[in-house]
Amino acid sequence: MITVRHPSELGHLVQDGVDLDCHFAFRDYVDRAPLHWGRLRVLNRIELEADAAFRLDDERAVEIMTLVWNGMVMATVDGLGDSLLKPGDCHVVSAGAGVSRATWKAGNTPASLLQLWLIPEEEGGEPEIGLCRAGKSFGLAHVLLASGFPEDDPEEVDQVSSRDPLPLKTRARVLRLELPIGGQAVLPTYADRCVYALVVAGRVEILGHNADEGCGVAITGCETVIVHALAPSTLIVCDSD
Which residues form the Quercetin 2,3-dioxygenase C-terminal cupin domain (predicted)? Predict the structure, then answer.
């Protein structure tokens, strides 16, 4: 099964300098909104005006993954300190038994970011944060940003590097793809997995379905996902059970 969700079908929330496009039910976006896709519970594209902040209170039993696209963002998690995020950085909050407040605040210029919330395998545990720096650019064309699979854990082979994925507490992988026009990506998966691809920029064809910038593509029942770039394109892909 493949379903393309166009930007006009998404939830759109605006409040106090924060603009959100929501792929799943979130806050006031509940009518006819899907609740999740596999263990992917939230996928929001967030635009922050200069000095504006996106805040969460009393979150628990969720992995909150933030990818900064433009601008500078200060991520503050009560009890876990501050992290200054730059374009290309990946930040994960494992809420565990509970985080009383988490805030993502833009600097003196606007900022844009993506947030993915994933449902962990088990509830409880101490809250944790993880941070991966991308440097001045987004780096490699195909990057595994975060994973909950032991075989992807650099600590298992004692070869930690700046490009290693951040650990997740759920059997999921989150990837970033950057394709030139005419480029192709082949993503192996399993028929019982749930794959969700967000076209951040560009235009692609996925298994015979076209998707433009801002579209979400929900896929299941496939053992291989093939992406063709019809224009220079960037995608974020989540593969979960």
Answer: 164-239
Sheet holding 81-85, edge to edge: 53-59, 99-106, 73-77, 81-85
pTM beyond 0.90: yes
User: Dihedral through CA 205, CA 206, CA 212, CA 214, nearest 10?
Assistant: -160
Sheet holding 128-132, edge to edge: 11-15, 18-22, 40-48, 111-118, 63-70, 90-94, 128-132
d(CA 115, CA 157): 29
Neighbours of 73 (CB within 10 A): 27
pLDDT per position as a tens digit, 2-13: 999 999 999 999
Question: Long-range contacts made by residues 8-14, C-beta under 8 angstroms, separation at least 24?
Answer: 10/214, 10/216
Our measurement of the distance from residue 195's CA atom to the centroid of its chain's CA atoms, rounded to an integer in Å, reads: 12
**Residues 127, 93: contact at Cβ < 8 Å?**
yes
Parse the chain into domains and list their residue ranges. 2-240
pLDDT digits (tens, 9 = 90+) for 31-57: 778 999 999 999 999 999 999 999 999
What amino acid occupies position 230? L
In CATH terms, the fold of domain 2-240 is Jelly Rolls (2.60.120)
Please name the amino acid found at residue 57.
D
Distance CA 44, CA 230 (A): 24
